[in-house]
Amino acid sequence: MKKILKADISLSKVINNYFSRNKFITSFFSFITHTSGGRTYILYFIILPFLPELTNNILTDKQASFIWIYGGTAFILFQVPIYLTLKQSVKRNRPYEYNYTKMLIKAPDQYSFPSGHCASATLITLLMYNQDFFLAPVFLIWMILILISRIGLGIHYITDVIGGLILGSLTYLVALYLSNFKLIYNHKFYSILSNFII
Q: Which of 117, 148, 193, 196 fits 36 for a cystine, CB–CB 3.0-4.6 Å?
């Protein structure tokens, strides 16, 4: 275990040191990482029902409704509670607190494990692949960039990112399980929103 933790710190340092020496990379990944923040997902959740109409069905209504209804429900009922519970039970301080890394952006909260950004990016990407969305490979690249950004910007260890990957994957499995149920009221609410185009 000590060897794993030592490797975790060392590799996190190497990635963060590379970022800290390159302003362009820092700026680029700072932008990328904010596309997977908590407030950003609220925005995604709000606009998703409108995307089929707004994009001329580049993302179909069937795809959007599955992601919104089942992915959104799994996110709210499973990922968020597990994420908050782990944060408060593990209470792992962020790497910059021990001067292991240089903080290149402001962290959203005190504790490090798991990475919520990585969990959410993983969930979204898996849902896109599940729905055979033709831009799913783009989401995979985006997800990988999110994972790298959280380490490089100095606010997560590699194991935090792995924890986020696992949490996002488990949330995806919960979404698949929920898809066995009709969730009538969720469907009705989605239908109301998707037909509300100003």
A: 117
Q: Give pTM, 2 decimals.
A: 0.92
Q: Check whether 187 has a pLDDT greater than 90.
A: no
- Please answer whether residues 102 and 16 qualify as being in contact, where contact means their C-beta atoms are separated by less than 8 angstroms: yes
Is the residue at 185 inside a domain?
yes
Q: Where are the alpha helices (DSSP H) in the chain?
A: 2-20, 23-33, 38-47, 51-54, 61-66, 72-74, 80-90, 116-130, 136-152, 158-178, 184-194
Q: Is residue 19 part of a domain?
A: no
Angle at 156 between CA 78 and CA 35, to 5 degrees: 65
- The pair of three-digit structure tokens given for residue 101, joined into one six-digit string: 């890394």
| Alpha carbons 114 and 83: distance in angstroms, whole number | 7
pLDDT in tens, 73-131: 999 999 999 999 999 999 999 999 888 888 999 888 889 999 999 999 999 999 999 99
Residue 29 lies in a domain: no
Domain that holds residue 160: 36-48+60-193
Alpha-carbon gap, residue 67 to 190, rounded angstroms: 11
Query: Taking 70 as the threshold, does the pLDDT of residue 197 lie above it?
Result: no
